[in-house]
Amino acid sequence: HRMPHFGTYNGNPLVMAAAAAVDDVCTHEALAAAEQLNEGALSAIDDVIAQYELPAHTVGFGVKGAVTWSPAPVRNYRDYKRTDFATAELSWLWGVNRGILTPPGLDEQWLVSLAHTARDNELLVAEITELAQALRA
To answer: Residue 128 pLDDT more than 90?
Structure first.
């Protein structure tokens, strides 16, 4: 029995070649370096949050990072609903208007790629520092 399975990249040979190349490019060393970049960014942003006493915290795992606009960690749906979504949207728009493009959403998330550099992290931290200064002005 046949069943159609539709999708933007289903069976695309270029996408399949790119997926296969990931095994060659994403070595343990390359991923460790990207994770180290992310950990550095999270640590620097934690320092900004503490310095400016922002009602926010960072969340990170591997190469993924986020700023969540809630003073307490989000553990369930009720916690998430208490997030300051207005400030989260402001934070996202602030970054977009300064060339920091993260996915739109109600928490500021990012993924560190193998192409990112320490300078990229410095730009992210500087943008969040400017926002913190503006919020506390």
So the answer is: yes
